[in-house]
Task: structure prediction
Amino acid sequence: MSNACAHHDHHHALAADTKSQRLAEAETLCAQAGERMTSSRLRTYELILEASGPIKAYDVIDRFHPQGAAKPPTVYRALSFLEQMGLIHRIESLNAFVACDTRDHPHAAGFLLCDCCGQSVEFAIPNVADIEVSATNSHFQIKHITLEARGLCGACRGHA
Ligand SMILES: [Zn+2]
Ligand SMILES: [Zn+2]
Ligand SMILES: [Zn+2]
Result:
């Protein structure tokens, strides 16, 4: 969380049963793709699921072991793997990561970002096919589409 908003506490950390379900689904997804969900990949994903909002790489590194930080390259490699698998998204404007909210992996995602509490809400970017047609017409190869809206979430609008 980038901003310590003292007016409220509306955290959306996942319930324990939801988290273990998401971890199991991630292992299945990797197995189906012929990839290995190593312990460091799984731990990185778990920390992102546990975070109450978008989490930065150095916070994942810090929280990795109960007794101390992880080696940064381990976490950076795990983050890039999880992003490729579509299990997490990188929010460019925050340089932070969130777990994907859908079962549709991988896909282009947009985000509503609260400037007050730092929460994010994922949404499907509309008309991706239209963007792809424009790109094709321009002989442009898209690597990544970003759509990030900044503002105030419902809870923060109440006290702002
Ligand atoms: Zn997603
Ligand atoms: Zn908010
Ligand atoms: Zn707030």
